[in-house]
Amino acid sequence: MITELPERDAEGYLIEPGDWNEDIARALARDENIALNDDHWDAIRFMREYYDEHQIAADARFVIKHLSERYGREAQKKLFELFPYGYVKQACKIAGMRRPRAWSTG
């Protein structure tokens, strides 16, 4: 259990994605009233792997494509069930991404 989160911006996104770990994800998810389950972790771990490889946050379409391996045509619906207040607002934040500036928070 962590006692203090790393530095965040005014909207609650990590300033430095490298400070992220799974305990921080759990704390950020609690702030968003999300109880992380295996489906959340699947999306979050994919996002972290994408970030590690490309040094940018994965666009939602890449996460949907990843989820489609398990959910088929329901993948987009599933992503928004997992993160009901939006991909950027919740998934990116919980996965420790900086807020993507060119994207809306919806």
TrEMBL record:
Domain of life per record: Bacteria
Recorded GO CC terms: cytoplasm
One BP term from GO: tRNA wobble position uridine thiolation
Protein biosynthesis among keywords: no
Localization, UniProt: Cytoplasm
Keyword Mitochondrion assigned: no
UniProt GO molecular function: sulfur carrier activity
UniProtKB keywords: Cytoplasm
Chief place where the protein resides: cytoplasm
Matches recorded under NCBIfam families: dsrC_tusE_dsvC
Family: Belongs to the DsrC/TusE family.
Protein's name according to its UniProt entry: Sulfite reductase gamma chain
Organism listed in the record: Thiobacillus denitrificans (strain ATCC 25259 / T1)
